[in-house]
Design goal:
alpha+beta; Heat Shock Protein 90; globular; 149 residues; 6 strands
Amino acid sequence: MREIFIHLFKNSLDHGIESPHCRRSKGKSVTGEIFIKLRPSEENLVIEVWDDGQGLNIEKIRRKMNPSSAALTSKDLAHAIFQSGFLTKNQVNHVSGRGIGMDAVRNSLESHGASIHIKLRPEDYGCDQFTVFSFVIAIPRGYFVIQQD
């Protein structure tokens, strides 16, 4: 699980949180934030991860998809980032590089009986064609122990 969360944090740093200059121009604090919310359910530990960055460029994703993507919803397009080989950046860098993609994150979680999906949060911070979102991970109770007070 450690590698999965490292990957999610790197994605926030590289794809989500804007430069200090850009954040200042949007009226945001120059320091970006990454949030984690944990909540147990009857069957799972639900972990939600998000940042206060720009979000997903839904229209850019639509353009990268095939011509039939015109009928896809924003939520469908957001989940395209889990497709094997799907890239939103054209250059390799030292933060997220070109190693493991979001498809590997999903496959790793699913191999342990867990799941990941995207929850769109258009009411938060998003602007222009960007939609803010969070990753929602559900890990089966068999992988952890919740201590109740």
